Amino acid sequence: METLDNKKVLFAGNEDRWQAMLSIIQDGDELWEYTSPAEMWEMLAGREGIVLVRDGKVIDDLLLVMN
């Protein structure tokens, strides 16, 4: 949960993308969190989010933070 305009919001307003990702999940799929290494954040190129992985391949992604 994030706080946006003094309201608690799931994924800072990305609820539709999150629900879309959840709607395509199949048995055996995995959700992985990712974040760039510290060096990337220091270079203002960092990213953080969630990916849907199926059979070792990224099927969908939800970018949550970037700088």
Task: State the main characteristics.
alpha+beta; three-stranded antiparallel sheet
Structural class: alpha+beta
Our Rg estimate from Cα atoms comes to 14 Å
N-to-C span: 19 Å
Q: Mind describing the biggest β-sheet?
A: 3 strands, antiparallel
Helix content: 10-25%
Order of helices and strands: EEHEHEE
> What's the number of structural domains?
1
Order of strands across the biggest sheet? 3-4-5
Number of helices: 2
Shape: flat
Strand content: 35-45%
Mean pLDDT comes to 88
Give the total of beta strands. Answer: 5
Extract low-pLDDT stretches: none
Outline the structure in words:
The chain has one domain. The longest helix is centred in the first third of the chain and has 9 residues. The model has no long low-confidence stretch (mean pLDDT 88). Strands 3-4-5 form a three-stranded antiparallel beta sheet, covered by helices on one side. A two-stranded antiparallel sheet has the order 1-2. Helix content is 21%, strand content 45%. By secondary structure, the chain is α+β, with helices and mostly antiparallel strands.
